[in-house]
Each structure stands twice: as C-alpha cells, then as structure tokens.
Specification:
Helices cover 15% and strands 45% of the residues. With 746 residues, the protein is of the alpha+beta class. The N and C termini lie far apart (96 Å).
Length: 746
Amino acid sequence: MRIFLALVLTLLSVNVFAITIKSIKYEGMVHISEAVALRMLDFQAGDSIDEKIINTSIQTYFKQGYFEDIWVDEEDGVLTFHFKEKAIISKVELKGWKENDEDIYESVIQIKKGSLYDEKKLEAAKKRIIEAISQDGKIDTVVEIEKEYLENGSIYVTFNVNEGEKIIIERLDYSGLIELESDMFDEVIANKEHEFMGWFWGRNDGKMSLGDLQYDPLRIRDTYMQYGYLDAKVNEPFVRVNFDHYTADMSYQIQEGEVYIVTAVILNQIKEVIDNDKIEEVIKLVKDEPFNIKTFREDAEKIKTIIADLGYAYVQVTPDLKKNKDNHTVEVIFRIVPGEKVKIRDVIISGNNRTLDRIIRRELYLGPGDMYSLTDLKDSRNSLGRLGFFDGNTIEEKRVDNETMDLIVKVKEAPTGNIQIGGGYGSYGGFMISIAVNDRNIWGSGINVGVKAEKSQMTQNYSFNIANPRLNDSDFSGNFSIFKSIYEYNDYTVNTDGVSVGVGHRFSRHISGYMGYSYSSNTYEIDEFADTNLTNLYYFEPYAKSAVTISSSFDNTDDYYLPREGITLSQSFEKSGIGSDANFFKSRTNFGKFIGLKEYIDFDTIFRYKARYYYAADTGYLPIAERFYMGGLGSVRGYESYSISPIVADDTAIDGFRRIGGMQTFSNNVELSFPLVPKAKMRLVAFADWGFIGDDALNEFSRGGYGMGLEWFSPVGPIQLMFARPLNEQPGDKTATFEFTMGQRF
C-alpha cells in the first residue's frame, strides 16, 4: 500500500510540472542558428514537457562549448532559452619564454585569437608550457595566467612564464659495468655527466634532458648489442636531485651478460626472386664473429633495397634472431616477402610554378611504364636536389593496387635569379658598385644566363655567359661566355679580355665530362714603386693565352647548395700553347665529402671535408698570373686572397719581396655546420683550414686558419660571412679577419 501511494504521488507531481509548449524562443544565442538549435531538442512546439526534459536540453546546449550560462523561463506556453555566451579571446601573449616563436603558439599554447574563452583550455595550455620547459631539463617553472576584460567584451590573455632552473648532472655512475667503457655511452646518451669547462664547445655541460631519461637506457643497451651482448639489461636511471643547488646524481644498474656469436645467417625467401648468393654479397654480418645489432639493421635495409630494385616495391624484410642461451650463439634469420612486381602508372609533378615539367622529368630515373626501383627513386630525389632550383623536394609513392603505383613529385621553388643594381663592400675588393642580372633557371627552362658589370677598388668585371646543362633535353651540355676583367693582386694588376666555349656530356647519373676552348689577351700593370730596369719584369710581359681544357667530374650529393650526403670529385687538365704566347700544362683535382650527422647525434649537423690539389708545368712560358696562389675563401681563410705564395726579393716592392705564385698547391678544409635560425635558413659553421704551396716541393710555404661563419640562404641567393684567425703567421703575411661571398655552394 505504501509503494502504491508513493507511485501515485510521483505521477501527480509529474503532471503538476508538465506543460504544453506553444512556441520556443532563443535570446542571446549567436554561435548556433535557431534552426540548428531546434533540431537539437527532443521535443517541439505542441509537445508536453517536464522539468527533466528541460534540464536535458540545457545540458545538450552546454556540450557545444559556446556558453557560459543557460537558463529557461516559461510564460503562457512560450518557452524561452536565455544564453550567456563565452567571451572571445582577442589576443594571446606569451611573456618570459620564447615570446616570438610562432611554432610555440601553435604546438604548445594551441589557443588562437578569436577562439572562445575556456578556463579548461587555458589550464591545459599552462600545463603544456610547463611540460615543454621541463623537457629542456628545467624544473620549478611557474606559469601565471593574466586575464584582462576589454570594453568590447573580449578577453586579453597573457601567459607569464617564470622559467625554472636547469638540473646539472654532477655525477653519473654505472653499476655492473665490466667489459665496456663508460666513455662509449657518451656518444649516444643525452644525459651526461658535467665536465670541467662544460660550457666550451665539445665538452659536456651536464644539463639534464628529462624527455630523454626514458630513452637513454635503450641507447646504452643498443651499444651493448653492437658488441654482441644480446642479454644486456639496463634499468631506468636512479636520479637524486638536490633542489637547493639544482644538481643531480644519476646511476644505472647494468647486467652485461655474455657475448653472442653468429653461427649462421639464414635467408628465407617466401618466393624466390633472386639468388641467395647475390643477397649474401651485401650482407656484412659474419659467421663465427660477435653479433652486431647495427650491422644487422643495415643488412636488413640492404636486402630490402636489392629486392626493391627488382621492382618489388612492397617487399617486406622481417629480421629475426634465434638465440641459444646455453652456448651463447645466435642464428640470424631474414624472412623476405617480396610481394608482386610493381610498375609506375603515372608521374605527377606539383609545386613547380615556374620550372617547366620537362626540366623536372628529365632528372627522374623512373617514368610511366617503368618497373619500380628503390635506388632509382633515391637517385631521382638527389638529382632534383643537385639542380639547385628548389628549396626541397619529395617523391611520394601512391599505391594504386598490388602491381601499380603513382609517383607524386612535389617541389618547392627556390629563387634562382636576381637583379642587382647597387653597391656593397667585398672582403677583398673593398667598396663595390654592381649591376648584374643572373638566373640559373631562366624562364624555368634550366638554362643559366648571366650579365654582369662590376667595379670595386681592386676589381672590374664585365661578362656575359649562357650555359645549357641539357641541350634539347639530351645528355649533352654547352656553354659560351665573353668577359673582360681587371684584377689587382697583391703586387700587380692583370687586364684580361677573353672568350670561352665548351661542350659537355653526362656519361652516367653521377659522372660527366667536359671539353672547352678559351682565348684571352692579358696585360700587366705593376705597382708604382717598381723599377722598369729590373730583370724580374720578365714576369710581367703581356701574353695571349689559347687553351684547351678537358675535365671529368663525379657528384652523387643530395643537394646543390647544402648537401648532407655524398661526395664530389673533379679532375681537369688544361693545355695552353696553341698559337699563343703562354705555353703550359695544368692539372686541377678537387674533392668534397659531405655527411649529415643527424642520425648519429640527433641534431642537424653537417660535416664537410674539402681538398684540392693543383699542379702546373712550364712547357714554354708560364705567366705569373697563371701560377697558383692561396688565401681566402676556397683555400685558407685568415689570409688575404692570393697572398700566400713563393716570393722573390725585390727592394722596390712595398714589402721588399714580390709574390710570384707556385707551381703546385694543396689545401684542405674541415667544417661543421649547425642550424642557427632554421626559419631564416641561417646556419653557423666552424672551420679549420690548412694549405701548402711551393715550386719544387709543397712544404715551401705552409699556412692555416680557423674560425666561425654564417651561412645564409637569403632571398637573393646563398651568402657566406666568414670570421677567421690565421695559423702559422709569418712576418710579411697579409691576414684577413673577415670575408664574404655570394652565390657559391656551401
């Protein structure tokens, strides 16, 4: 009976609060239209509703995230929803940490101007800021959110950041370390022990990277596995932090285990598409030798490449290890699933607003109807990069079915030409006035055309040149130039008028040859202190030069201006004497090696080594201007251009001797390039140069230099600013602390 009475009372109460709706109205709603709002309701005009249904409707609207408050009233069957919408954020500002970094606003704060004010989103942004700073090894960071309500009802939000302190690792211990040296881990781990003078380049500063703490044990274990310790265990580091001084002690617990020896390398082709013998030729893991996880991964990648080069684009190489823990041996198994052979259906090019499609297509080694090749795909990317026409390029593989794919070539145009009318200051030539028009890719045709008129304190250059690297899209190239120059060396000036023409041929993807002819008329002007009766005026007789040059070059780098992989090697021979005064032979050898270090140190660092060896033989008459000199960009920085040379005594010369050039010279450079301002395409470079020059022996003159520089791919082309100090400086040497150049390969 009690239950029955309770049920009756409940039904009566529901009927008491139930109302029949004649119409529905909205006030204060902006972000949602009335038509959309009505569709969100579970009822409509004419229905009978109660308080529960109204509450459900309010909750539905709240979930949209636009409203700060919602209330409802009813009068004579008219149901009115009242809304107080959230304020608009008119501006978001970050103070105290990376204030002008737009990437931080997008990736960390994630609140944009014009978005709705939401306390939860602000708190989430605050947490992301603290987390981002903690990943840089700083703790106790404080972020305060300041809100200013403006007259128009919007809100001005400011995140005031008080960065925490860096934790310095004062001590790093390894417990259980027996066979390997702790120094071996410094090359791979991010959290290292602080060293004396840790602020100096190349030393460990000891700053803790919290984000890397979970990965460092894996890096240590990977190092062990490179030496065959497949059972090595490395626990998470135990960290003791002194919050008074923000220093820390860290320790790792290591169980090394035993070295595993490779007993067999087994190739398991699900469908045999190539002889195992050919695969074994590229495998570096050796039977009866300790296992190496790095070689193991490289072998898997080589197997994938050799199979993919046969057209099997979707090949899968699954490596596996079969360990015998009793005798500590391991069988290495590569399971190869080639899939089906894949043909290229189409090649689609995009992003080339200026460069013609055919200029891009002729650099690709894959086209419609070709069988897929992974090597051809990589070489195509590198070939496009070597053009120097694009900021970057990608070739995407779009799968059509199991046997066909499309290649989507995406390029981003780079400035290849410029018009310069103005002046400047050169590191060697002094103040300069220049009028120049040059384009390496005129009208997107791939043809290089340049016209220049330039005058400085020490040089004058007037020239016209045109070069086509692919005549009629063939493997032949051609060039023509006419020029006039006045160049002041350290002790004399050379006036040259000349013309040159040549033809080249590309023999393979990376090897090309060239043959050219040049003719020039040359006269000298020596300094005002010279005595015209001196016998050394033999060096300054005017001469005509008629020369044939033959050269070959190898280039498999991945980019023209900023290569990160590959080598360059060129060799040229020049013979002058065909119906001219000058009669000599020259040999020039140039070498460059480029290595991107990002995969080794997780930082976009580029290592470069460049070397050049030049040799000349006097077969009749070798003018002084045709001899070799060192100094400046391209040889030994820290010394003036052309200032390092064999000398002869001359009391009338300014220095008491005259530079006459050498018969042979060798110079080499080591460089490390680091990103400085990635968005502005600026990089910092550290370098060391050393060179030798002489007549009978290379070591007659030896000089070096070191320093830092700025590499900037500016809107008008690549610019290098170099600050150098000389090494092995001798009395009478002409040094230079600053040099710059434009348009040259880094």
